[in-house]
Automatic annotation (TrEMBL):
Xref: PANTHER family: NADPH--CYTOCHROME P450 REDUCTASE, NITRIC OXIDE SYNTHASE-RELATED
UniProt record, GO biological process: response to hormone
Species the sequence originates in: Sitta europaea (Eurasian nuthatch)
Database matches in PROSITE patterns: FAD_FR, FLAVODOXIN_LIKE
Protein name as catalogued: NADPH--hemoprotein reductase
Keyword field: Endoplasmic reticulum, FAD, Flavoprotein, FMN, Membrane, NADP, Oxidoreductase, Transmembrane, Transmembrane helix
EC number: 1.6.2.4
Domain FAD-binding FR-type: 282-523
Cofactor names: FAD; FMN
HAMAP family attached to this UniProt entry: NCPR
Transmembrane feature ranges: 25-46
Gene of this entry: Por
Span of domain Flavodoxin-like: 83-227
GO MF entries: flavin adenine dinucleotide binding; FMN binding; NADPH-hemoprotein reductase activity
Length: 680
């Protein structure tokens, strides 16, 4: 401004000395113009400044960005840690195991930290040797068809592409898998093998946990041999008896602004009141239930069809995707825990991590009330793991009960057997344990610290977005059974979904949800034949598939053969979507409908029996028609039996030996022509 202002003085001086009116006029004009320009510039300067301040606000978001902590090496050096336990976790179990291992380290004069690989730069593994007595442990769950969990995807991609020299790295891997699945513990096996290929030194053998058996026992057995191997490698010894170490401290809020208190949100405070896309696991969408009807006509079970309204959510889905829902625990169970522990459940509190350097500040969103934590954030219905029993034992005032708890948490054969029979097989949840051990009355805050997080439940979507762009359909069966102790246990999510009243105002009709993408996809070409095998609620994704094929046909596309193999117990009891399937068949979209009623005759008939019956047609579709095969439902028996049936059909009509037939089917899987969406 001064630079522009200085020349403006000259015309005004010359005007005073001059008698020429024209000069005076021009000088006045100059002054006027310069004043105008100066005024405009001044206005622009301040206006511009305000504008420039706006983009600075998002910089506050950098607080949640993982960039500042991307080096786990620097964090370990800063906090004096030498053991890092990475976890690839989809349901929270691998994270729980990682926390237990990192907590164990102090017993051996070492310091551990559990770490989410998504938050760090894993290429720093090559620098871990800079830390004395350093070790990297990996608790890796396998998800879906041999895939990494969502939070381990980047780590998996890096391992595949990495050309790093990890010769200074010492490591151990514990895998979490399920033997009923085709690719048992694929992720654990891959990480173990790949780290060795990159030059890292394995200090203890790969552990393979099987969730179809007893995952907790597999972990304990591995862990009790793992630590002695660590001691031997580093020349350290256990420092003494195991001791209970609290990870969080309790802060009770007596005078708190209730607008700052979490009431069930998964991430952002008040996110359920002020919904903002995109919607995901940390920011679920509250969908209105517009329909909730019973599908079966008889029998003991309750099978239901729900429709969730996703209008205005910008949520997109495809046939074959999964919908995840966040359920709530039964209020009567929550109230009983409060009564037994003599606690005011509406007390507002926070559990703050004693380790100030930890990325995980709280075990669940805080501040919140005990009631909210036990209702929305904590798993109170599954049998607790042994580490929970061990930590709780100190609060049992009866010596016999305390000894029993410690024994079940021990690695002794007798203790493992007792835990298996008294907790796992009897399906005792935390409430049942408190009821059956009258002297066990732990502080509720320590109980809340120990219980695992309540996880989202996944369902195969039973609709096509081409036909239902603004709604997602769910097909589910309520889980309800009597335990060995005579208690009635109910499935958390299905009981909660069953209670949802369509279109009713308030939370009674709202479901927090998000969509998880799947590889379970219809062929790219509509003319490709499809063979769908889905008994029970396994029919769900195929309702979406058939809807989509019908829509494609309406668009004038050539649609290939659409064959369904469906099974249920009885035609009169639980034949799901009977009318819809009959209509699709009448319209010519569903070219073949094969239904197995397992209990309507003396000998049980299942879907695999119908496949054998139609083996020639099946082989023709697969071999000549290049058909895609889809299997959805129970992994333990059905999926395995169906796969064995395909081996037999391929062997018979393809003139192949059993190993050749197996290889043929495996190649179909590799090419994406044999897809599974199964659960155990």
């Amino acid at each position: 401004l001064p630079a522009m202002g200085e020349p403006s003085m000259d015309p005004s001086i010359s005007a005073a000395d001059s008698t020429a009116q024209q000069d005076s006029l021009f000088s006045m004009m100059d002054v006027f113009l310069i004043s105008l320009i100066t005024g405009l510039f001044t206005y622009w300067f301040f206006f511009r400044k305000k504008k420039e301040e706006v983009p600075e606000l998002p910089k506050m978001q950098s607080v949640v960005a993982p960039v500042r902590d991307s080096s786990f090496i620097e964090k370990m050096k800063k906090t004096g840690r030498n053991i890092v336990v990475f976890y690839g976790s989809q349901t929270g179990t691998a994270e729980e195991f990682a926390n237990r291992l990192s907590k164990d380290a102090h017993r051996y004069g070492l310091r551990g930290m559990a770490a989410d690989p998504e938050e760090y730069d894993l290429s720093d593994l090559s620098r871990l040797s800079e830390i004395d007595k350093s070790l990297a442990v990996f608790c890796m769950a396998t998800y879906g068809e041999g895939d990494p969990t969502d939070n381990a995807q980047d780590f998996y991609d890096w391992l595949q592409e990495a050309d790093a020299d990890l010769s200074g790295l010492r490591f151990a891997v514990f895998g979490l898998g399920n033997k009923t699945y085709e690719h048992f513990n694929a992720m654990g096996k891959y990480v173990d093998k790949r780290l060795e290929e990159l030059g890292a030194q394995r200090i203890f053998e790969l552990g393979l946990g099987d969730d179809d058996g007893n995952l907790e026992e597999d972990f304990i057995t591995w862990r009790e041999q793992f630590w002695p191997a660590v001691c031997e490698h580093f020349g350290v010894e256990a420092t003494g008896e195991e001791s209970s170490i609290r990870q969080y401290e309790l802060v009770v809020h007596t005078d708190v602004n209730m607008n700052k208190v979490y009431t069930g949100e998964m991430g952002r405070l008040k996110s359920y009141e002020n919904q903002k896309p995109p919607f995901d696991a940390k920011n679920p969408f509250l969908a209105q239930v517009t329909e909730n009807r019973k599908l079966n006509e008889g029998g003991e079970r309750h099978l239901m069809h729900l429709e969730l309204d996703i209008s205005n959510s910008k949520i997109r889905y495809e046939s074959g995707d999964h919908v995840a829902v966040y359920p709530a625990n039964d209020s009567s169970l929550v109230n009983q825990i409060g009564e037994i522990l003599g606690t005011d459940l509406d007390t507002v509190m926070s559990l703050n991590n004693l380790d100030e350097e930890s990325n995980k500040k709280h075990p669940f969103p805080c501040p919140t009330s005990y009631r909210t934590a036990l209702t929305y954030y904590l798993d109170i219905t599954n049998p607790p793991r042994t580490n929970v029993l061990y930590e709780l034992a100190q609060y049992a005032t009866d010596a016999g009960e305390q000894e029993r708890l410690r024994k079940m948490a021990s690695s002794a054969a007798e203790g493992k057997a007792l835990y298996l029979s008294w907790v796992v097989e009897a399906r005792r949840n935390i409430l049942a344990i408190l009821q059956d051990m009258p002297s066990l009355r732990p502080p509720i805050d320590h109980l809340c610290e120990l219980l695992p997080r309540l996880q989202a439940r996944y369902y195969s979507i039973a609709s096509s977005s081409k036909v239902h762009p603004n709604s997602i359909h769910i097909c589910a069966v309520t889980v309800e059974y009597k335990t060995k102790t005579g208690r009635l246990n109910k499935g958390v999510a299905t009981s909660w979904l069953k209670s949802k009243v369509p279109e009713q105002k308030g939370s009674s009709s709202l479901v927090p949800m998000y969509v998880r993408k799947s590889q379970f996809r219809l062929p790219f070409k509509p003319s490709t034949p499809v063979i769908m095998i889905g008994p029970g609620t396994g029919v769900a994704p195929f309702i979406g598939f058939i809807q989509e094929r019908a829509w494609l046909k309406q668009q004038g596309k050539e649609v290939g053969e659409t064959v369904l193999y469906y099974g249920c117990r009885s035609e009169r009891e639980d034949y799901l979507y009977r009318e819809e399937l009959a209509r699709f068949q009448k319209e010519g979209v569903l070219t073949q409908l094969n239904v197995a009623f397992s209990r309507d005759q003396a000998e049980k008939v299942y879907v695999q029996h119908l496949l054998k019956k139609n083996k020639e047609h099946v082989w023709k579709l697969v071999n000549e028609g290049m058909a895609h095969i889809y299997v959805c439902g129970d992994a333990r028996n059905m999926a395995r039996d169906v796969q064995n049936t395909f081996y037999e059909i391929v062997s018979e009509f393809g003139n192949m030996s059993q190993p050749q037939a197996v290889d043929y089917v495996k190649k179909l899987m590799t090419k994406g022509r044999y897809s599974l969406d199964v659960w155990s």
